[in-house]
Amino acid sequence: MEGLLSRLDAVRQTGSGWRARCPAHEDRTPSLSIHEGIRGALIRCFGGCALSDICKAIHMVPADLFYDAPAPRGARPIPKPIPKDPRNTAFQFELAALDLRLRAERIFDAAKQIEVPSLDDADLDRALSYVAQGYRDRERADTFDGAADDLRDRFGKERG
C-alpha cells in the first residue's frame, strides 16, 4: 500500500482509507479513494476514470494492486500517514478564503444590478438567499484566514 500511496499526490488519510488526486485526469481536489481490501488495494475515482487509466498514469498494472500473500486483515502493517507541511495547509486555507471572497464579490456585484421592483416574490426570495450566501462566504473566508494565520504562528514557533 505504501508503494501505491507514494506514487500519488495530495494523499491524506480519511477515517477508513485515503484520498488523493487522481493521476488520470486534471484533479484540483482529491477525487481518488483508496482503501485496503482483503486481497488488495481498492481504488475508485469519483471523476469517473477507469482503473486501467489510473494504473497506467502511475506506471502500474491492476495486478500490482493485489497483495502478494493472503494474510488476515489485522496482520498487514498499517501504513504511516504522510506528514503534512503546515505551510502548505496554511496556503490551501488562504486559497479557499480567496475563492470565497471572490464568489461573494460576484454575488454582491450581481445583486447591485437587480431592479427590485421588477421581481416577483419568488425571484426576490432567491436573490436574497444568494446575497445571504455571499455574507456566509465572507465569514467563512475570515475563518480560513484565521486558521492560516494560526498555522503559520504555530509553525514559526516550532522552527524558531
- How many β strands by DSSP? 4
Order of helices and strands: HEEEEHHH
Indicate the radius of gyration in whole angstroms: 22 Å
Q: Strand arrangement, largest sheet?
A: 1-2-3-4
Supply the number of structural domains: 2
What's the number of helices?
A: 4
What is the general shape?
A: elongated
Helix content: 40-55%
Distance between the termini: 35 Å
In short:
By secondary structure, the chain is of the alpha+beta class. The chain is built from four helices and four strands; from the N terminus they run αββββααα.
Structure, explained:
With 160 residues, the chain is of the alpha+beta class. It has 2 domains: 2-75, no CATH class; 86-159. 48% of the residues lie in helices and 12% in strands. It has 4 helices and 4 strands, in the order αββββααα. The protein has helices at 2-5, 51-57, 86-112, 121-159, and strands spanning 9-13, 18-21, 32-36, 41-45. It has a 4-stranded antiparallel sheet, with no helix packed on it. α3 runs antiparallel to α4 (121-159). The protein is elongated and about 70 Å long. The mean pLDDT is 86.
Write the layout of secondary structure elements.
Elements: H1 2-5, E1 9-13, E2 18-21, E3 32-36, E4 41-45, H2 51-57, H3 86-112, H4 121-159
Antiparallel strand pairs: 1-2, 2-3, 3-4
